[in-house]
Amino acid sequence: MAITRFAGSALQADAASRSYDGALISTDPPYYDNIGYSDLSDFFYIWLRRSLRDIHPNLFGTMLVPKAEELVANPYRHGGKGEAESFFEKGFELVFSQARRAALPEYPITVFYAFKQSELEKEGIASTGWSTFLDGMIRSGWIITATWPIRSELPNRMMSVGMNALASSIVLALRPREATAPATDRTGFLDALHNELEAALPKIREGAIAPADLRQTILGPGMAVFSRYSRVLEDDGSPMSVKTALALINQTFDALQNEHDADLDADTRFCLDWYRSYGWNTRPYGDAESLAVPLGLSVEGIARGGVLTSGGGKVTLIKPQDLDPKWDPANDDRLSLWEVTCHLARAYAAEGRETAARLMAAVKDRVGLDEVNRLATRLYELMESQDAPTAGLFNGLGGAWADVSATSATLRSVAVAETLFGGDD
Ligand SMILES: C[S@@+](CC[C@H](N)C(=O)[O-])C[C@H]1O[C@@H](n2cnc3c(N)ncnc32)[C@H](O)[C@@H]1O
Asked: I need a labelling partner for 389 at 20 to 30 A (CA). Which of 7, 101, 105, 250 fits?
């Protein structure tokens, strides 16, 4: 098949006043006063102008780069901080309203948002900057249909923050909201949110989304629910703010994570209760007994399962890093989800995909693998603030889940073929 190649072309135009007719948009917009682009540009412009003015007369016609239209909140240019912010916000909404008027029904537009690391550290993913950004796009007539975390920026900084840092950029997909979109109330919003997040979560988990990025990813389907309505009305009749919607999306996500607790095996529920109460600390035997008995368990039984050490009146939950690397599920008559998840996370981090895949294949008929994946996310979230290195093991397993599962499936088919046709031939 012949491939037609077109030469690219670039032109400079003011985003707030140009036409978007027929345009498929992917944009990385400026944000408040994060960076003074035009002032920085002047530094290079004056040198480029000397050598390129004859080649690009339109681009280098002015002494310095254009400033007045620049969408940044620069207090010196706009007569104060308040005026500068209002200039930015109006301009930002103008861009998105113009783009909305010309929106193509077949394609979404994509918008990049770069978190300031300080913003993420202080306020998390419901930060003021982020909710104002979302609000501007929703008010301009867009539905947010996806939020994908990306790790494209600041590699040095990311590494220094550690392996569990949240992705610092998000790409959003937006589609036009119809003018006839209905309104709903808080209850209607919460019901739709619960149903749609419940349907979305397994699909997201199947992908290569690390548990650390799950909360950012789940905002997409959550915001899709919120922004598809013309308004979500609070009980007093006022419109719900984006900040409240973000908080409710987070709460619904937490509730969905905990909803399956009743289905967990008793040993796993014991370990979750124990970790929440005592972490990895060694405690008196009585503490373990009082958590075990209501679950119909004995401390000795749990210890036999291989997740706990008990002796001399003291009990300690075994950290994944300290589990026996030679563990063979075939010789373990008391498997729990907790045990399997910890072993898989350890094996993946210490020995890699093949070993983890082998273990996965060995346990797949005895525990629900989807449950293991879900528990990996929970353990990441549970441990992240107290024990980042251990949380990192679960983050690694969750992020590599699709990969490990695929390898495990090939191991299983090789095993079946060997059984059917004889391994040595
Ligand atoms: C976040 S940066 C994009 C950076 C880009 N993705 C890159 O990697 O080089 C935002 C850009 O928007 C430009 N900008 C600011 N105001 C504008 C306006 N009114 N019209 C068009 N572009 C504008 C800035 O000059 C800056 O280059």
From this structure: 250
